[in-house]
Specification:
CATH topology of the largest domain: Fructose-1,6-Bisphosphatase, Chain A, domain 1
Shape: globular
Number of strands: 19
Order of helices and strands: HEEHEEHEEEEEEHEHEHEEHHEEEEHEH
Radius of gyration: 19 Å
CATH class of the largest domain: Alpha Beta
Structural class: alpha+beta
Number of domains: 2
Helix content: 25-40%
């Protein structure tokens, strides 16, 4: 299979990406802590000295299974995963970006708010995505998938959610705990900005938008693998995404279409960098929300740090 992706390829990918999500989801459910019952040993390790970034056997086994399944079907593609080690190699135009377990802290403590995220990028453009999230339904989960131009499916059924055209000030919204450091509401919007929830899993929070549960979401700091699975789903479901320009003097929300820094001969490590904040809401609401969430100007200390870098 070449790097060029045809309509036929996209149709196959729609089936495959949901299947891949079911693989990782099945592994996660086996490891998930059952309150009051014995659970499988998670073999917890930490990626940092502060022990703030845990990784478990569930993370690594799910990633290994995903990589194996993806490369068996698409041997000419590349895969970038959160649990990979540093790699300076070149990479192809067609890349699967996976986060086998987003929300590891929730998972460790038996809180069923986590996700497995799988995204497919072509020259930096998100073209397919799938999210596995636990859910209190007969299947015990939702697998939400989308491919550019082919719509959204939830557990292999056609998506049927009417995206709200008007903002509801008493509806649920998701914001990061660090929101106040980088953003501020306009005064009139402050008390009418929605009912705040913080999920502890970026991919899970973004899935709540697709499900019509939350109205908008601000993601202040993330890696590509946190959002790559959700972005194609959000686009196909009728949502718009704004981001912040990388130009330091531009301090406003601009439309997001792709990871432009990945469009021209990127390295593997380019897929592992942090990305600028994003704002997501229904298309009909995005201007209203963006105009009411202001981006704070960086402090003098932050500016000095940016020049040093």
């Amino acid at each position: 299979m070449s790097d060029l992706i045809t309509d036929h390829d996209l149709s196959d990918i729609f089936e495959d990406i949901a299947y891949f999500a079911s693989i990782s989801g099945s592994i996660l459910s086996q490891f998930f802590k059952k309150p009051g019952l014995n659970s499988k040993d998670l073999d917890i390790k930490f990626k940092d000295k502060a022990q703030s970034d845990p990784v478990t056997l569930a993370d690594t086994e799910a990633q290994e299974a995903l990589v194996k399944a993806i490369l068996e079907k698409y041997p000419n593609h590349d895969v970038v995963g959160e649990e990979d080690k540093k790699d300076e190699a070149d990479i192809s135009d067609t890349v699967w970006v996976i986060d086998p377990l987003d929300g590891t802290r929730n998972f460790l403590n038996g809180l069923p708010i986590y996700a497995s995220s799988i995204g497919l990028l072509f020259k930096g453009e998100p073209i397919a995505g799938s999210l596995y999230i636990p859910w209190p339904n007969a299947e015990g989960c939702l697998i939400i998938s989308a491919v550019k131009g082919l719509g959204v499916r939830i557990n292999n059924k056609e998506y049927a959610n009417d995206v709200a055209a008007e903002f509801n000030s008493s509806g649920i919204v998701t914001l990061p705990g660090s929101f106040g450091r980088r953003f501020k509401f306009n005064k009139k919007f402050q008390g009418n900005s929605g009912e705040l929830r913080m999920g502890g899993s970026i991919a899970y929070e973004l899935s709540l938008l697709v499900l019509g549960i939350s109205q908008y979401s601000v993601i202040s700091s993330s890696h590509i693998w946190d959002v790559a699975g959700a972005i194609p789903i959000l686009f196909e479901a009728g949502y718009e995404i704004r981001t912040i320009s990388s130009k330091k003097r531009i301090n406003s929300w601009i439309p997001f279409e792709s990871f432009s820094h990945l469009s021209d001969k990127p390295k593997y490590e380019n897929y592992r960098t942090r990305i600028n904040p994003i704002l997501v809401s229904p298309k009909d609401q995005i201007d209203y929300i963006a105009n009411n969430i202001k981006i704070k100007k960086p402090s003098l200390l932050e500016l000095m740090k940016s020049f040093v870098k």
